[in-house]
Task: structure prediction
Amino acid sequence: MHYFIFNEINSNDLGIIVKKMPQVPLAERDIESFNVSGRNGSLHIDNGTYKSINYTISCIISDISKIDNIKKTFNGTSKLILSKYNDRYFEATIKNQVSFDKYLNVLQEFPLQFELQPIACSNELIETTISSDTDDFDIGGNAITNPIIIVDGIGTVTINNVSVQILESDIVIDCELMNCTKNNLNANDKVVLDKFPVLNPTNNTITIGDGINSIELKYRKRWL
Result:
């Protein structure tokens, strides 16, 4: 039997039976279309991003006594784990305000409508240390990942042709937040880079320059 977890509460614990849990569809690319005078067809600009996903789970309430907990749980934005994909989570927002009075008077069946962020992340935060050059480092999943990089040493680290020059040891580079710190203090002036590196699902090339003892990578697998 399928289940889901939202706001860290399992649907089974709320007396909810999942009637229908569809597959999560592939997110739509965010592509802008323009009509240009004198040109056939349309001009398309691919922004390299994906749109949010509308997703509905059909539910049945088996225990009416838990209705207050159900109302409290299904609110706002939280991580959503689906039993179909129990190794990952989606950032999800409840889209509909369920009229429980309406549904409870009929079949005790109601829809939960979510807006999902287009990329799912692994539940596990993976940590690995790299101390030598490699050109076949795989992380899995099928989407790029913005890692946290902790650098031991002073020098240059290159990840997939993106070079980062480290001017002071023990710098933490958060590629998701695009921020560098040391001892939880701002250290952006201790790092020289044109852009923050990302990790591909497979075949990442990492070069450890002179003066760098090792780097620690922290990341989650990601899927479209």
Observations:
- The domain at 4-122 is CATH 2.40.30.200 (Elongation Factor Tu (Ef-tu); domain 3).
- The chain has a mean pLDDT of 90.
